[in-house]
Amino acid sequence: MLLIPILNIFIFCGMAVNLVRSFGRYGFGDSALAVICAPVIFYLISKKDSDKYLGPNVTMERDYMDEMKKAEKAGDKKKLERLISKNPYKKSFLREWTESIVFAVFAAAFIRMFLIEAFVIPTPSMEGSLLVGDFLFVSKASYGIRTPMTIAMVPLLHNRVPGLGTESYFRKPCLKYNRLPAFEEIDRNKPIVFNWPVGDSVYITSQRSYTVGQARRSDGAIPDRELWQKVKKEDYVVRPIDKKDHYIKRCIALPGDSIQIIDRQVYVNGKKAKNPEKMRFGYYINPPKSGISKQFLDKYDIAQNHADIRADSRGKAIYFLDSLQVAKLKELGDGVAVTPIVNTPQGEQLFPHDTKNYPGWTVDNYGPVWIPKKGATISLTPENISMYRRVIDVYEDNDLEIKGSKIIINQQEAGEYTFKQNYYWAMGDNRHNSEDSRAWGFVPHDHIVGKPLFIWFSTKNASLKDGIRFSRMFKSADID
Q: What is the mean pLDDT of the segment spanning 457-475?
């Protein structure tokens, strides 16, 4: 069992505890040290002459328990009382509970770290496939278990300590990125969970996290006072890969693919991509003269969540609707109008944040963009460097400089570059209400966390007081 990854950690800890107990070390501190740092307790035992090997603890403890059972069965109360009073293996009530709780936390932390983790959908970017308030189980083994990089942390917390407003980990010591073999490949058009690629330097407010670049490019347009207070103080947090915020989106394109959006339709390698069944866009609604009944809204799940409606720059309501909802609204007649919103060019708010070389891009008309593939080589020019600069400089840890028309990588002029890992393109199903690859670019393979499995719980608006969506519980999260 020592050869089985993850399980071997628990087996080794059990063996270490039994070994120190075989030398008469039965105390809680001795057992705890055997789990936390076995070499230390082994060294202490070797240096203490009074610590003698008594025999294999597992066998000795089992034989002692058998003696107690025999005495109880034979009705020999005196012998039983003597055995109980002299029992070196007896644990107090407090110790029993402490060890149980520690083991439960230890086991849960390892299961969460390596195998399966529970996530909640906090934003509407994947509606109506995955809704705000859906709780998911995500398999971390499906795409290959990513071994821990940040190892000094508060168990069962991702990156923040609730109530304290501080990070839940220490950046050092840290380990290098490594990933065990995958059970399956990432498929096109399937949802994936990943660490937010650009979330390495972030301002954190009560509303959300903003990247340093995002705040700089917005030029004060983001309506969050807390953000701008932090910007003035340069109060941002730097995070390692595995402690960046978690995102869930649909993997639209794979390494080596070319992607383009034309009039809202995604094209991959020149062919129309399969659209999610409940893909949503933004619309203005002019209601019928008779109004829209609550029964109608409930039946077709229209404006059921706070995130389903947003005000535009003029204060006019935008509704995020799928094709069925649009059709049913139009069937009401009586003067109803459902008008698609028209997105104008968003300048440097869209990746690659370069309006000079990539002018006129919008969320509905975007690209083309080629997705980097491990081992592939591209030519680098002043015109395309903005597309791949962060990949080369940050994700693949090179020193990149631009001096006039020259591109310098690791102190050498470069006319081409060969990628070291695969990248993916991720987008939300709620296409007009999703901050995704169109805003921040590629998802590196080392940022992939896992595959969503199923919804195990769901609350309306992510709040129990608003009710539970029983109909969504135990549904697959692998939704087309």
A: 88
Residue 270 in 3-state DSSP? Answer: coil
* Alpha-carbon span 434 to 432, nearest angstrom: 6
Other Cβ atoms within 10 Å of 451 Cβ, number: 23
Per-residue pLDDT at 145 = 93
- Of 418, 445, 474, the residue at which a domain comes to its end is 418
Q: Is residue 191 part of a domain?
A: no
Indicate the SS3 state at residue 1: coil
Please, how many CA atoms are within 13 Å of residue 67, restricted to the half-sphere of its CB?
15
Total domains in the chain come to 2
Phi and psi of 48, rounded to 5°? -105, 115
Evaluate if residue 1 carries a pLDDT over 90.
no
Q: Once rounded to an integer, what is the mean pLDDT over residues 368-378? A: 98
Can you give the residue range of the structural domain that contains 398? 377-418
Name which of 272, 209, 268, 258 is nearest 236 in CA terms. Answer: 209
Residue 403 counted as domain residue: yes
Q: What percent of the chain has pLDDT over 70?
A: 99
Q: What end-to-end distance do the CA atoms of the chain give, in Å?
A: 39
Burial (Cβ within 10 Å: 0-12, 13-18, ≥19) of residue 203 = buried
